[in-house]
Amino acid sequence: MAIGYKNLDVYKRAYQQVKEIHRISQEFPKLEKYEIGSQLRRAALSVVLNIAEGYGRRDSAKEFQHFLRTAMGSCNEVRVLIELSKDLGYIGKEKFQELEEAYEIIGRQLYRLREANKKS
Description:
By secondary structure, this protein is an all-alpha fold. It has helices spanning 9-25, 30-34, 36-56, 61-87, 93-118.
Protein backbone atom coordinates (compact mmCIF):
# COMPACT_ATOMS: atom_id res chain seq x y z
CA MET A 1 0.00 0.00 0.00
CA ALA A 2 1.52 3.31 -1.12
CA ILE A 3 1.65 6.23 1.30
CA GLY A 4 -0.18 9.22 -0.18
CA TYR A 5 2.50 11.90 0.14
CA LYS A 6 4.94 9.71 -1.80
CA ASN A 7 2.59 10.00 -4.78
CA LEU A 8 2.80 13.80 -4.86
CA ASP A 9 4.98 15.08 -7.70
CA VAL A 10 6.34 17.84 -5.48
CA TYR A 11 7.41 15.29 -2.86
CA LYS A 12 9.13 13.11 -5.47
CA ARG A 13 11.00 16.09 -6.95
CA ALA A 14 12.00 17.48 -3.54
CA TYR A 15 13.15 14.04 -2.36
CA GLN A 16 15.42 13.67 -5.40
CA GLN A 17 16.82 17.15 -4.81
CA VAL A 18 17.54 16.60 -1.12
CA LYS A 19 19.67 13.60 -2.11
CA GLU A 20 21.52 15.74 -4.67
CA ILE A 21 22.02 18.58 -2.17
CA HIS A 22 23.42 16.11 0.36
CA ARG A 23 25.85 14.70 -2.19
CA ILE A 24 26.99 18.12 -3.41
CA SER A 25 27.40 19.63 0.05
CA GLN A 26 29.77 16.82 1.02
CA GLU A 27 32.22 18.28 -1.52
CA PHE A 28 32.26 21.73 0.13
CA PRO A 29 35.46 22.85 1.88
CA LYS A 30 35.83 21.24 5.32
CA LEU A 31 34.65 24.25 7.32
CA GLU A 32 31.67 24.85 5.02
CA LYS A 33 30.48 21.24 5.23
CA TYR A 34 29.47 22.07 8.78
CA GLU A 35 28.36 25.66 8.21
CA ILE A 36 26.69 26.49 4.89
CA GLY A 37 26.59 22.82 3.86
CA SER A 38 24.81 21.80 7.03
CA GLN A 39 22.29 24.63 6.73
CA LEU A 40 21.70 23.75 3.07
CA ARG A 41 21.09 20.08 3.91
CA ARG A 42 18.68 21.00 6.73
CA ALA A 43 16.72 23.41 4.52
CA ALA A 44 16.43 20.90 1.67
CA LEU A 45 15.38 18.18 4.10
CA SER A 46 12.84 20.53 5.68
CA VAL A 47 11.01 20.85 2.36
CA VAL A 48 10.49 17.08 2.14
CA LEU A 49 9.70 16.61 5.82
CA ASN A 50 7.11 19.40 5.88
CA ILE A 51 5.34 17.98 2.83
CA ALA A 52 5.17 14.56 4.49
CA GLU A 53 4.13 15.85 7.92
CA GLY A 54 1.61 18.26 6.49
CA TYR A 55 0.09 15.55 4.33
CA GLY A 56 -0.40 13.47 7.44
CA ARG A 57 -2.37 16.35 8.96
CA ARG A 58 -4.39 17.27 5.90
CA ASP A 59 -7.64 16.53 7.77
CA SER A 60 -7.06 20.01 9.21
CA ALA A 61 -6.79 22.42 6.27
CA LYS A 62 -5.23 25.06 8.51
CA GLU A 63 -2.45 22.72 9.69
CA PHE A 64 -1.75 21.46 6.17
CA GLN A 65 -1.49 25.08 5.00
CA HIS A 66 0.97 25.79 7.82
CA PHE A 67 3.27 22.91 6.80
CA LEU A 68 3.11 23.88 3.13
CA ARG A 69 4.01 27.49 4.01
CA THR A 70 6.97 26.20 6.03
CA ALA A 71 8.05 24.02 3.09
CA MET A 72 7.85 27.07 0.80
CA GLY A 73 10.01 29.05 3.22
CA SER A 74 12.57 26.26 3.31
CA CYS A 75 12.51 26.11 -0.48
CA ASN A 76 13.39 29.82 -0.60
CA GLU A 77 16.13 29.23 1.97
CA VAL A 78 17.65 26.54 -0.28
CA ARG A 79 17.60 28.97 -3.20
CA VAL A 80 19.52 31.60 -1.22
CA LEU A 81 22.04 29.05 0.02
CA ILE A 82 22.73 27.58 -3.42
CA GLU A 83 23.24 31.08 -4.81
CA LEU A 84 25.67 31.85 -1.99
CA SER A 85 27.42 28.53 -2.61
CA LYS A 86 27.82 29.45 -6.28
CA ASP A 87 29.10 32.93 -5.45
CA LEU A 88 31.64 31.47 -3.03
CA GLY A 89 32.82 28.99 -5.67
CA TYR A 90 31.54 25.82 -3.97
CA ILE A 91 29.28 24.87 -6.87
CA GLY A 92 29.63 25.68 -10.55
CA LYS A 93 27.26 27.77 -12.63
CA GLU A 94 25.76 24.74 -14.38
CA LYS A 95 25.01 22.92 -11.12
CA PHE A 96 23.61 26.14 -9.65
CA GLN A 97 21.32 26.58 -12.66
CA GLU A 98 20.14 22.98 -12.39
CA LEU A 99 19.38 23.33 -8.67
CA GLU A 100 17.82 26.77 -9.05
CA GLU A 101 15.45 25.50 -11.74
CA ALA A 102 14.51 22.46 -9.66
CA TYR A 103 13.74 24.56 -6.58
CA GLU A 104 11.83 27.12 -8.64
CA ILE A 105 9.60 24.28 -9.86
CA ILE A 106 9.27 22.89 -6.32
CA GLY A 107 8.24 26.32 -5.08
CA ARG A 108 5.58 26.63 -7.77
CA GLN A 109 4.31 23.13 -7.05
CA LEU A 110 4.08 23.89 -3.33
CA TYR A 111 2.18 27.08 -4.09
CA ARG A 112 -0.28 25.25 -6.35
CA LEU A 113 -0.77 22.49 -3.78
CA ARG A 114 -1.42 25.11 -1.12
CA GLU A 115 -3.92 26.95 -3.31
CA ALA A 116 -5.70 23.72 -4.24
CA ASN A 117 -6.05 22.77 -0.59
CA LYS A 118 -7.44 26.16 0.42
CA LYS A 119 -10.60 25.24 -1.47
CA SER A 120 -10.96 21.83 0.18
